Amino acid sequence: MSSTASGKNGTWRNWGGNVAARPAREVMPASVDELAEAVRRAAEDGLKVKAVGSGHSFTSIAATDGVLIRPQLLTGIRKIDRDDLTVTVEAGTPLKRLNMALAREGLSLTNMGDIMEQTVSGATSTGTHGTGRESASIAAQIKGLELVTADGSVLTCSEKDNPEVFAAARIGLGALGIVTAITFAVEPIFLLTAREEPMPFDKVLADFDELWAENEHFEFYWFPHTGSTNTKRNNRSAGPRKPVSQVAGWIEDEFLSNGVFQVAQWVGRAAPATIPTIARVSSKALSARTYTDIPYKVFTSPRRVRFVEMEYAVPREAVTETLSELRSMVERSRLRVSFPVEVRTAPADDITLSTASGRDSAYIAVHMVKGTPYQGYFTAAERIFTAHEGRPHWGKVNTRDAEYLAGVYPRFGEFTALRDRLDPDRRFQNDYLRRVLGA
After folding, report:
1. Under a CB-based contact definition with an 8 Å cutoff, are residues 19 and 56 in contact?
2. What is the residue-wise DSSP string for 188-219?
3. Cβ 71 vs Cβ 124: under 8 Å
4. What pLDDT score does 264 carry?
5. Could you give the angle at the alpha carbon of 368 between the alpha carbons of 367 and 374, nearest 5°?
6. Quick one: which H or E segment has residue 32?
């Protein structure tokens, strides 16, 4: 992806265009040994180290003025274990390549997010997730990890080996070491039937508990300035496979979701007053459709319109109240929001700093198109999310600090104590980690 390309004068920029950094040097190791050597050399030169994936985070979590590690050469499947139903992959493997390779082997992850451009280590380290009643984030499907720690040694962890590291490192924020390989639980490939249909916002809020309980994977998009949403329900299916036809798929996914949407964003940027009208038109352009396909073709979709995003996890029981407050705030304000709000869920998990750690969660994501001023909207939304003890997605815009996060994560101290043990000299520190984890 172009986001991984450095710009002029060795400047690195992220996908959303809102973060830039100028590392002292870049290293592209071809093996775990080379990566360990790069970490040891950085220590000798007194430089910090950060690994960067595809730049899909909207925070500066991967930014550094020290050594930037690019994992492009650490890609591919190391091993498929059909007895244990696991796959071990190199950390730099893009999710897209993993999904396609698994499908060829008749296997699949149980759940995934809606974008698959990220590397497996970048996606899991920041807590990337889809939506699910019982199935959780991508990191919650990890069975084992290999990481290079601050002294250049290679540490493996699982529920049996180094379990305290395993509890934290599945969503490690790049603070505990550099992940070099991940073992995921997989299952024989299956079919999902997706049912997408418009539904009034008030009805979705009133029926949210039922919609969540009756579907394996429920999510919806609300179009601000309108009373409309588009809902999506994904459930396992006995088949037959009935993919979206190429023509319909192009019209709906490329032309409407990306093409018309891009034009709408341009018009909205040029004339913000037109946004509520455009929102009403866009929310009506999407018609109901049902299709059945293998998981990654149902869960994921292309995102060609670049944006900046903030997402918070709130306790699931607080989701309708939080959304009602968000709607009132947009209505009262002079904001013009041209991008839909995305709502998903996850069950509680046992990962130390997972946004769903120890509590059933609902995710509310707000977006603005790349290049538009987003601060006013995000600040107002963040005020609402934090009033409900929201936990920010580690890879998306937020202004929280360690003091706030220690209050919403019961196991926060467990993570920082482990970091003190694994990285006492803060080799993997950067400004973002200093803010969210404390000095």
Report:
1. no
2. E--EEEEEEEEEEHHHHHHTHHHHHHH-SEEE
3. no
4. 67
5. 110
6. helix 32-44
DSSP 186: -
Q: Among residues 151, 130, 148, 254, which one has the least CA distance to residue 194?
A: 130
At residue 439, the pLDDT reads: 82
Residue 323, both tokens = 């959304």
Low-confidence ranges of the chain (pLDDT < 50): 1-7
Whether the predicted model's global pTM rises above the 0.85 cut: yes
Instruction: Give the tens place of pLDDT for each residue, 357-412.
Output: 999 999 999 999 888 899 999 999 999 999 999 999 999 999 999 999 999 999 99
pLDDT at 319: 98
Residue 363: half-sphere exposure toward Cβ, Cα within 13 Å: 32
CB 388 within 8 A of CB 360: no
* Contact status, residue 87 vs residue 81, Cβ threshold 8 Å: yes
- Whether residue 267 contacts residue 274, with contact meaning beta carbons closer than 8 Å, is answered with yes
Alpha helices in 64-183 (DSSP H): 95-104, 120-125, 163-169
Which H or E run contains 282?
helix 275-285
Is 38 in contact with 67 (CB distance < 8 Å)?
yes
Q: Whose CA is closest to 66, among 430, 434, 436, 375?
A: 430
Q: What is the dihedral of CA 74, 79, 80, 85, to 10 degrees?
A: -90
pLDDT at position 9, please? 62
Q: How far apart are the first and last CA of the chain?
A: 33
Backbone angles phi, psi at 312, to 5 degrees: -125, 145
Rounded CA-CA distance 226/276 in Å is 7
**Residue 248: predicted pLDDT:** 62
Q: What is the pLDDT at residue 181?
A: 98
The angle formed by the CA atoms of residues 275, 59 and 297, to the nearest 5 degrees, is 70
Contact 381, 310 (CB under 8 A): yes
Q: Which residues neighbour 355 within 8 Å (Cβ) at sequence distance 6 or greater? A: 127, 129, 137, 313, 346, 361, 363, 391, 392, 393, 394
Considering only CA atoms, give the Rg of the chain: 21
Find where tokens 């690994």 sit: 51
